[in-house]
Structure formats: C-alpha cells, structure tokens
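Quick one: structure for this chain?
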Amino acid sequence: MSERSRGRPPVRPPRRASSAGPLLFLCGALGLLLLAVVVGRPLAANALADFAQDKDSLLRQAPVRALLASRTGGDADLPRDPAGTGRPFVVRRGDTARQVAARLEREGLVRSALSFTLVLYDEQRADSIQAGTYQVSPAMTAREIARLLDHAPGEQTLLRVIEGWRLTEIASGAAKAFPGVSVDAFLAAAVVGDRTDPLLAGLDPATPLEGFLFPDSYYFRPSATAAELVDGLFATFRDRAGPALLAARERGAKVYDLVRLASIVEREAQDRAESPVIAGVYANRLRIGMKLDADPTIQYALGDWRVLALRDLELASPYNTYRVAGLPPTPISSPGLAALEAAAAPADHPYLYFVAKSDGTGGHAFAKTLDEQEANRVRYGNK
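Got it. Here's what it folds into:
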C-alpha cells in the first residue's frame, strides 16, 4: 500500500528561502515613509499654521516659523499688485499684529496675512507696530510694509469722532484739527463717489456718507487731505461693522436701512446693553407699519440735539417720524458698533414702546401695549 493510500500526505522536498519578500516589504515601508513625509509635512504645516497664528508664543519660535514658511513661499517679498496705487491704511491703538495682518490681506495690500505675520516675527517687529494712518500700496512687499508700520508716520494729529455725531459735526471736528481741511471740503469728499464697496451697493454716487464714518480716535499726518480723512474713517467702518451688516444682507436686509436704523438706536440707547432691545422695538413698529415716533430724527432735522418741545413734533419734515411712517430718508448720526450690530440683529421680543426711566441710569422701561406705556410714564415721571 502506498503512502498516499494510507492517508498520509506525500513528502515534499524542502523549499529554498527567497529574499524577495523582505525586500518588497522594505521597499513598501520606505515608500510609505516617503509618502508620509511628502503628504504629511504639508498637512502638519497646515494644521500648525491654523493653530499657531493665534499663538504669539509659538510664532516667536524660529523652527515653527520655518515650518509655516513652507505655506507662503516667497510671498513676503512679492507685491500683491505691482501696478497698485497707495491708499490710507489705519493702525488703531491696541491693534495686534494678527489684526493688522488680517486687515492688510482683506484690503488687498499683501498676498497673505500669514506671510506678513511671519515677517513681523522674523524681524522682531510684532511688538513695535505704531498707531497711525499710513499710505500703503499693494505694489509694496509685505516686508516693506512691515518696516513702514514700524515707524510712526511723523508727527500725528488726533481726530476724535464721537458716537452719535452727525456728518456736519464730524466735518467741523476735522476742520478744527486740520487747518488745511475746510468743512465744505470734508463734506464734498464724504460722498459715495466712485467707491465700489459692497456696503454701498446701489447708492447714488452723490449720496453723503452720513452714518458710514465710524466713530473712533484716529491719527493722521497734519497735512492729510479731506479725502484721506474720509477714506480712513470709512475703512474703519468697513472693517468693524462690515461683517455684521453683510451677514444681515445675506438674510435679505438692505445695508442702508440697517445704518438708518442703527443711527436712531445710537441716539436713543444711552445704555449700550439696551441697543438690541431698542432696535427690536423699532423693527416691530416697521413690520406692522407703525410710525417710529423717534425724537432723534426730529432733532436731526432741527440741527440741534436739544430736548424737544411739543411744537417740534409738528415739524413739517420727512425726518419727522411722528408724522411720517418708516425710516428717515438718511441716517441721522454716526452709529457705533453696538448700535450697528443691534440693527443687524435686533432682539426678538413683543415690545412696541419704551420710555426713559429718568433715574440717572440711562435705562428704559419697555411695554407691549399703550396702557403699559402710559403706566410706565407715570411711574418714572416721564412726560
């Protein structure tokens, strides 16, 4: 009987060991390692960049900056637009390196915020940016702009724009601070003109920039022109209020309507925390076609922020919201950020009325009905 017939497996000759298997494994491992380096390094750099841009301590480390530089190439020494022309760029007191870098990129002055930030830290300029208004051009490189902002632009003149000022008050303040700028020259420059900013979309070029010049403290060269002053104030409006207003526009609102509403809220809300609530009252009135009955619109028409008399409520003016329904024809003041954000996102509530508490707090009592409003008037002694 054969071995096979007994159920035993046949005896096979021993196989010779092959070197191909380990070699293929080694090549595969090396390939994976190379792939990890090629793919993983950019991924690591991207992740680190996203994390490190907000971390001052990390950006001060040379190895970290070297890794991040792989994302920017030679952007630090390339202009954003070689044919670009100069324009005012405002660095406010307290601005961080990251905030300045983000604004430079957003305004099309540098190729990337990251390349500018890396230059600041490479050249140890991140802590020495000077507040002021500079003439910056996209024809300059990030490195050149970093060096420019490291030196205050000569002797500077302060222009302070107060929240709630009307355009003529800003013009008067500019004329006092800058002898070369007249009130008429400032007002002539403070129009939409040829600006193509989305915040001004649809407005006639002759429309005054009432409400679009942001209240803040500014520093300009003493020789600044009216156009440079207006450009600086509008640029800050775009930077500070633009995100909230454009987000509201995406939801169907009109930016000009929001600024008109915000300008009223600015004059009414002494307590900034009440801004969304007051904006909500006016939004509720607009929605049902109720007149706004807003004292500040009449004050604007009179050219005086004084307390109104009863006869003032009969003023024949499109700005008299006691007689004319809807928003006033134009903004009536320069609203601050609280009022602008409130107009862009009013509080959701049932109130249609409010009255000053007259208790020194600047606060208001809110009511849903006219009876509640009258009770609040009596309670707080408001006539």
